[in-house]
Specification:
Shape: globular
Structural class: alpha/beta
Number of strands: 10
Bound molecules: nicotinamide-adenine-dinucleotide
Helix content: 40-55%
Order of helices and strands: EEEEEHEEHEHEHHEHHH
Largest sheet: 6 strands, parallel
Strand order of the largest sheet: 7-6-5-8-9-10
Number of helices: 8
Strand content: 15-25%
Distance between the termini: 45 Å
CATH superfamily of one domain: NAD(P)-binding Rossmann-like Domain
CATH class of one domain: Alpha Beta
């Protein structure tokens, strides 16, 4: 059995490909989404959620994976991003949804931070977003419809000690989000950011193991009194990507249990 995006369950789905446009049995456009950082944590949960919602989903990650439609690329390398996008378009059609979740932190006292550390964090968290948006925008412009969600960080609200490069990069992502929303709203494309609070992922647990944050203390300081789950972020992304969120753009939607830090 197969659940179509129009909500009808059929024994076997018929998919019609006209040029590069994929229509399901109901004649509805099957959207193709790319989730960067889809190999782990938040990106993985977003990819699973969007698949469950009926989208075709490709992931791009630095780490290789045997999963279907998992493409290996470094988002800081525009040639690798372009090659992944060429393969994704050939396999799944034009891309009209992009979630930028690939990210990297390097906790360090500012005086210990080498310029190489600074540059790598800016490269992955900011320049990677630049390269991926540049690579998919032409598809969205041609379709006259698109959704971009950038995963930034709640650390941008107040700053965080030992995270200067990361907070600088993520703050820039919020600024990029607002500017692109103004620029591409007339083209039918919405651009929003989701800054997560403390979410239980390998990145967070690695930082805890290195003694840079304490999950229990953060839970105490969080109004809803729990750590966030990757699925909490995936739910926000799924909404921002939906048709009914078409009047929401340029927004920074905190998903943080009420804790804006
Ligand atoms: P994670 O480490 O579990 O996942 C990050 C993924 O990004 C990994 O699969 C990694 O391989 C991939 N990646 C890293 N560099 C890459 C590159 N150059 N090219 C392609 N892929 C690359 O981390 P996560 O917690 O799921 O983080 C997802 C996003 O959420 C990140 O942007 C992170 O900064 C942000 N974030 C996380 C938290 C949290 O508490 N977990 C809080 C705020 C923001």
């Amino acid at each position: 059995m197969h659940l179509l995006s129009c909500g009808i369950t059929v024994a076997e789905s018929t998919v019609l490909i006209i040029g590069r446009t994929i229509l399901d049995d109901c004649g509805l456009l099957v959207k193709t989404a790319v989730v960067t950082g889809g190999g782990s944590g938040i990106g993985r949960a977003v990819a699973q959620r969007l698949r469950a919602d009926g989208l075709h989903v490709a992931t791009i990650d630095l780490n290789e994976s045997d999963e279907q439609f998992a493409y290996t690329a470094d988002v800081t390398n525009p040639e690798q991003v372009a090659a992944a996008l060429t393969a994704i378009r050939a396999d799944l059609g034009p891309v009209t949804v992009l979630v930028n979740s690939a990210g990297l932190e390097k906790f360090k006292r500012f005086t210990d931070l080498k310029f190489d550390d600074w540059q790598r964090v800016i490269d992955v968290n900011l320049n990677g977003v630049f390269h991926c948006i540049q690579a998919v925008l032409p598809d969205m412009i041609e379709a006259g419809w698109g959704r971009i969600v950038n995963i930034s960080s709640s650390s941008t609200h107040s700053g965080q000690p030992y995270m200067s490069s990361y907070v600088a990069a993520k703050s820039a992502v919020n600024g990029l989000t607002k500017s692109l929303a103004l620029e591409y709203g007339p083209a039918g494309i919405t651009v929003n950011a989701v800054p997560p609070g403390f979410i239980d992922t390998p990145m967070l647990r690695k930082s805890e193991a290195r003694g840079y944050l304490y999950v229990d203390k953060n839970i105490e300081a969080t109004p809803v009194r729990r750590i966030g789950r990757p699925e909490d972020i995936a739910a926000a992304c799924a909404f921002l990507i939906s048709e009914e969120a078409g009047y929401i753009t340029g927004q920074i939607l905190g998903v943080n249990g009420g804790r804006n830090t």
